[in-house]
Hints:
- This protein is of the alpha/beta class.
- It is 42% helix and 13% strand.
- The protein has 13 helices and 10 strands.
- The chain has an 8-stranded parallel beta sheet. It has a two-stranded antiparallel ribbon with strand order 9-10.
- Strand 9 and strand 10 form a beta hairpin.
- The longest helix has 22 residues, at 103-124.
- It is globular.
Amino acid sequence: MTTREDRLAYLEAESKKRIIILDGAMGTMIQRYGLVEADYRGDRFADWKQDVKGNNDLLSLTKPEVIKEIHTQYLEAGADILGTNTFSSTTIAQADYAMEDLAYEMNVESAKIAREAADEMTLKTPDRPRLVAGAMGPTNRTCSISPDVNDPGYRNVTFDALRVAYKSAAKGLLEGGADVLIVETIFDTLNAKAALFAIEELFDEQGWKVPVMISGTLTDASGRTLSGQTAEAFWNSVRHVNPFSVGLNCALGADLMRPHIADLSHIANVRVSTYPNAGLPNEMGGYDETPEDMGKALREWAESGLINIVGGCCGTSPDHIKIIADAVAGIAPRKLPELETKMRLSGLEPFNIAS
Length: 355
């Protein structure tokens, strides 16, 4: 059996040779199972005081076989890295279901499920170890923007509250066997900075670290996060942690996301990741980009030297991941640029000062 150190050494070496494949959407796949309230509750939460259907992270405790089966399907489709079923596994997000006290357990168990699936696939292909990325979502609060239009100075969460929640989540993910941590779907950079601060704090305390991936989301074709930053300003805000990769996911389909990934590819001196939605949601809340559509688009990105890591977000499935993996196979990964030394600051826009 491989160790975390072995797998990370493999990832470092392999990412220089080829484009690394992430998995696809978890929520999309869960919907296919048609689970009902009783499935989410299981025996353990049969008498829970409120509805819990829709709390997909809870399924790691009540329907672990479903989550593992989804992971396995993505591995069989060609994924190198599995994201854990922990998008909302923070005390802050779980408060919606009065399940704050379960958040740590959700992180541990979700990482264990993904680890088990990845290790079983690694046994079948020992020359290609599979890795687990501990997924840390944005929470359902924003530290930079008031939820009350009549009180712009009001905040419904603090930086310290986010830090504490993220630190607990990161610790649980590593305890469960995650190889890397991914702070993803970032719509508010201050939330992300709380997560990154918490991760660094945890690393200092435990005396060892793992690679960190960072993935923002642009809310529309304006090319800005919800808190108003451009892609370059966002990168300037988080580059100090020297992540394994930076990229974009969710919100946009491949066509609309391309120019912003191109911007990142020119300014980031780390690997660039992307996992777009299968297009924009249609009138029924579905996603219309076929696996062939996404494979064609992302192959062009790869041929243009824009990406190092690729996968899928909302609306994608193992069919999408298989075709994407096949589409980028044999194409060299993006070369990391050598950048001029500058002071790189950020507000809503980047502010770069040359020496």
